[in-house]
Design a protein that fits this description.
- This protein has about 190 residues and is an alpha/beta fold.
- It has one domain (about 5-190): Rossmann fold, CATH 3.40.50.1470.
- It contains 6 helices and 7 strands, in the order βαβββαββαβααα.
- The chain has helices at about 25-35, 75-85, 115-125, 145-150, 155-180, 180-190, and strands at about 5-10, 40-45, 45-55, 60-65, 90-95, 105-110, 130-135.
- A 7-stranded mixed β-sheet has the order 2-3-4-1-5-7-6, sandwiched between helices.
- Strand 3 and strand 4 form a beta hairpin.
- The longest helix is centred in the C-terminal third of the chain and has 24 residues, at about 155-180.
- It is globular, with a radius of gyration of 15 Å.
- The protein starts with a strand and ends in a 5-residue tail after the last helix.
Length: about 190
Amino acid sequence: MPQTWLVVGLGNPGPQYELTRHNVGQMVVDELARRRGEGFRTHKANARVAETWLRPGGPKIVLAKPHTFMNVSGGPVAGLARFYGIDPAHIIVVHDELDIPFDAIRLKTGGGHGGHNGVRDVAKALGTPDFTRVRVGIGRPPGRQDPADWVLAPFSGTDRAGLPVLVADAADAVEQVIDEGLLAAQQRHHAPRA
């Protein structure tokens, strides 16, 4: 029986945050559910989940969007991991990343949180930083704009036009990590675009 994977899209709850940069992780999880024709349902771990498979006969995937605000995402992630019996090595957290340019994706397992409070809280709740991160680049704010205001703002016109491709690329990266492993996904998604 293939190992079940937990794929969590970080973000903030509520319609006012749906299209903001901070919610790009949830956009990726929505795309993964859309590809499989799945809807989300409320789970007792304070999250919305969709249970699906990578492909027929392939690994089971639990797609999740915490109901909590970004900075306290750890509780729902740890609760879902316990409920489904999923080891941190089979958890993928998808989140926005200021230090990566818009339209780039970087993948890693373990290491520090890089100042990302959602990732910090997940690592604390799981008791380990050793889970995979799909880091979706949103770039730094222009000029002196406060990064907190930047991440909570909707994508600008130019970025909004490229957002579907970025979200699809990140969803592809999640699928590849599950199917072929982290190294293969890094080799594909860290390469410069042709």
